């Protein structure tokens, strides 16, 4: 199977610490450019949060189901994060690519490494918080985590922030301090791909 598209738009990988603002930026982008982006819906074993929809935000599955998908070679990558399993299925990407949309993947740093071993050839963007202190505050204010899962995320964030500094891992690192500024930066790197998709629709 070939996920590297010869002619279609290049996929985009968004990574960065939990709480850095990936979902916020992504939702804004998908809203402003309706019919341009498609989200690669990952599998996860974590519990849905209030407001999250199965099949839209994630495919919420049991560990058994996740293992089955891994064993059947249905995933292009998978990782353990903060005590839960996450993975990207081939079909989640193919569903988006079949519609000629820019496929957006939201994965952790392990996912970035594993995707680099595939032929997907995405644009790699890291969203980073201004500081650990601000990250912790945002995660606390989001009110989605227990103290335990919060601490695990902060630990993972330290590792992510360290690894993301490495030269050549990301095409672009955006510090999400002021949301509007971060969003403009994100848009400006994607504008060429966005225009390609918009032109193809004309
Ligand atoms: N490797 C990998 N990471 C994923 C996948 N889906 C989500 N993640 C990452 O898992 C981490 C936790 O995601 P989530 O539980 O939704 O929490 P949130 O990022 O704080 O909203 C984040 O860093 C996501 O980028 C996936 O399919 N593969
Ligand atoms: N630039 C920003 N300034 C202040 N708060 C922000 C900013 N960006 C995101 N947030 C808030 O921080 C929290 C974490 O953002 P979120 O998009 O859920 O992160 P991620 O998807 O990377 O885990 C959310 O409550 C969000 O509203």
Automatic annotation (TrEMBL):
Where in the cell? Cytoplasm, Cytosol; Photoreceptor inner segment
Where does this protein have coiled-coil stretches?
140-167
Q: Which UniProt keywords apply?
A: ATP-binding, Coiled coil, Cytoplasm, Kinase, Nucleotide-binding, Transferase
Q: GO CC terms on record?
A: cytosol; photoreceptor inner segment
Q: Main localization of the protein?
A: cytoplasm
What Enzyme Commission number does this protein have? 2.7.4.8
Q: Which reaction does it catalyse?
A: GMP + ATP = GDP + ADP
Enumerate the SMART domains for this protein: GuKc (SM00072)
Mind telling me which Pfam families this protein's record contains? Guanylate_kin
Molecular-function GO term, any one? ATP binding
Q: Which PANTHER family match?
A: GUANYLATE KINASE 1, GUANYLATE KINASE-RELATED
HAMAP family recorded: Guanylate_kinase
Q: How does it assemble?
A: Monomer. Interacts with RD3.
Q: Hey, which family's this protein in?
A: Belongs to the guanylate kinase family.
Q: What is this protein called?
A: Guanylate kinase
């Amino acid at each position: 199977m070939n996920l590297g598209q010869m002619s279609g738009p290049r996929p985009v990988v968004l990574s960065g610490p939990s709480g850095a603002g990936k979902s916020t930026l992504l939702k804004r982008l998908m809203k402003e450019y309706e019919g341009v982006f498609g989200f690669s819906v990952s599998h996860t074993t974590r519990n849905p949060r209030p407001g999250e929809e199965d099949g839209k935000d994630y495919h919420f599955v049991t560990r058994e189901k996740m293992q089955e998908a891994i064993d059947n070679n249905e995933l292009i990558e998978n990782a353990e994060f903060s005590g839960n399993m996450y993975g990207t299925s081939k079909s989640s990407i193919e569903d988006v690519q079949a519609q000629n949309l820019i496929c957006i993947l939201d994965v952790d740093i392990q996912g970035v490494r594993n995707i680099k071993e595939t032929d997907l050839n995405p644009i790699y963007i890291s969203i980073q918080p201004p500081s650990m202190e601000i990250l912790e505050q945002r995660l606390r204010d989001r009110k989605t985590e227990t103290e335990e899962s919060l601490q695990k995320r902060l630990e993972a964030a330290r590792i992510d922030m360290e690894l993301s500094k490495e030269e050549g891992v990301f095409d672009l690192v955006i510090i999400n301090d002021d949301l509007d500024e971060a969003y403009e930066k994100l848009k400006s790197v994607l504008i060429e791909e966005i225009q390609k998709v918009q032109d193809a629709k004309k």
